[in-house]
Model the fold of this input.
Amino acid sequence: MLRYIALRGLLALLVAFTVSLAAFLLLNVAADPAQAIAGEDATPDVVEAIRARYGLDRPLSVRYFDWLGGVLQGDFGESYYWHKPVAELVADRADETITLALSALAVTILIAIPLGALAALNPNSWIDRFALGVAVSAQAVPNFWLGLIMIILFAVMVPIFPVSGDDTWMHFVLPAFVLGASSVPAVMRLTRTGLIEVMGADYVRTARSKGFRGWQLLRRHAMRNALLPVISVLAVQLGQKFGGSVITESIFAINGLGRLALESILGADIPTVQMLIFVFAIVFVAMNLLADILNAALDPRIRIG
Amino acid sequence: MRMSRWRSVCAASALALATSFAPAHASPEDDTLRAAMAEEILNLDYNYTTKREYIILAQLTDATLFNIDPETQEVNPSIATGYEWIDDTTLDVTLRDDVKFHDGSALTPEDVAYTYNWIANPESESNATGVVERWLDNAEVTGPNTVRFHLKSVYPLVIRDMANRIMIRKDGTYNEGGEIDRDAMSSDLIGTGPYRVVSFEPGTELVLERFDDYFGEAPAIGNIVVRNIPDVGTQQAELMSGGIDWMFKVPLDLAESLGATPMASHLSGPDLRVGFLVLDAGGYTDPDGPLTNVLVRRAINHALNTEEMAEFLIGGSAEAIHTACHPAQFGCDQDAVAYPYDPEKAKALLAEAGYPDGFPLELWAYRDKAAAEAIASDLTKVGIDVTLRYVKLESLNQARAAREIPAYFGTWGSGGTADTAAIARIHFSGESDRDMSGDTDLADLVLSAEQTSDQEERKSIYSDAIGKIADEALWAPLFSYSANYLVSPELDFPLDPDGLPRLQNSSWK
Done:
């Protein structure tokens, strides 16, 4: 088990470095960081001064290995924009994104699992169709549209929640719903499929013969086995929430890692983008690893390593 | 861009739904103007920033030695009460004796001399160094209220540069104790402007309050809060719910939609930014290419329907222009020759130039795609076979530096400076690759305007230069831009002709 975790950890690092190299190359090809920092109307001397100040006039390979050398010593460099260590910047903003990601996951669980269970208990009924309809709609609606509609409905027309910001828990309700909604279809379908399959199993039939029915049957016998694949998906979804919060955080003006990523990409703030990609990749691989470990813990038949 | 358009459409549809409700607007009861900016505000020190948002904030928190009146373009006193040229390269500036910094300390001539000497020092790595090092040798204190500026050479635009760029800091701000700290004022700003910083969370919120010891006219509104809200749709929702009172850079369609409701007022003001087509008259891409022929360049000018582009693609207060400068800029002589929209005349000129069937033209552009496509379409109509290369700004800059661009659709905002110098020097002085005219006489003319302090003479020189550019059709000037604002119906926000939003001039109705 420990060997497996160590191997996966190494893999995570390799993924993170590979992705960061790709991001570094793409950013430098797509944009001139000095021009992006200086702005559209900056005169050439200002652009050149910025280029020299940040060492952007050095060859790409030198810059990348310089960054890599720093990372190996725990130094992720300094942001071109914020003029502070990138690690500090990311740490400052992580709270909001963690709060948002966990809240969004809670929203997903609270909507998708009951909906999936209802659909499984009433297959091919209007309830099932309704649940599927919700899933399809949630999948089809883009985050930014849903975000704006939620703001108009619940912050402007019926002003229950604040429009934007991240000062109180109230600020996280709408964004968590928006970010969480996008994961509802996958989790709901998996819950439904898993439950329908489990409900046909012999041990459930035995439980029925003992008199278990409905929610009791579901909770005490069917749910645990049916939720095994759901847990894996939820772990992956949580990883996606971290990386996928870019649009949601921008719409709701939440000062988290997603918004930081967007601003950094638009501003060609390469050290920040590289660290964020590094962090997102590590989180994503870690969440996958967590899913495997949870599955093994919940189902003794699964052995990893 | 596509996503942004989608968001605009979505925001507009949501808006239609929401207009049937009457939200409670934030009242001026707490005397706080809440403004939204999409661009993240990260550094409050305009000596170390360049973008427009920072100019707007610097107007609130800082003061320069002189001010330029946006209406008349006249230089007015600010921290300085006046100036006197001792000789061509020595300037004495007299200071007010009642200027205070936000920490309560009095401004001294040592502070002024220090600031200028620091900015001129390449070690400062200030974004304003380029402006000052051009002319400043050093500044020295010569009396209790006077500072003497020693110039490297004759440079009559010193006062204009002093008015536009350098924010005065306390002596030793950036290198106290010999240790350089360029971010010394980035968060905890100590300026001399009408508002002082109460709190600042980079990328999130800036809170300002009226500075009671400000030496100038006190602003009407007591507090200003600037929030960073990246999404324009969210900004609109905040405005509708009373969360903010002011937003700018609003897309025209959305500004008109929301401005037509009782929830907000749409203001459309001028913007010094102008759009233009730069033509390779100098033959850098092809020494014998069609663009080196003045008849072809005039044909291109006649082929473009700039009136319709301004009205339908830019909108608001945008107008067609026929000069290589904004009409509001000092020295932008509007008597220069104009080339009215006349496709038939364009075709005739092309035929006369030896291109009756047109010629292939690679047109580069990096912004306002609709306008770029309209330009390409108009040129195609007169027989020019246009290939539109819509690229990122950086790619265009690189290609232009390599002299690979025969024509491009460019824009210039002049840094908010209402003076032809701010557009002419960069585009026609031969000092940058933006100058594709290859006209050394024109370059000499443009530079000569910077060698005289006689305003009438400067005006006359720029008049000659702008006239020459028009005669030779070195550019195809297109249109001015407009600045669209959405403000609370309770806010009185005056617009200035130079297009720079001055929140300090706002008041409650």
Remarks:
- Chain A touches chain B at residues 30-32, 35-36, 38-46, 49, 53, 81-83, 142, 144-145, 148-149, 151-152, 155-157, 159, 162-165, 250-253, 255, 259-260, 262-263 (CB under 8 Å).
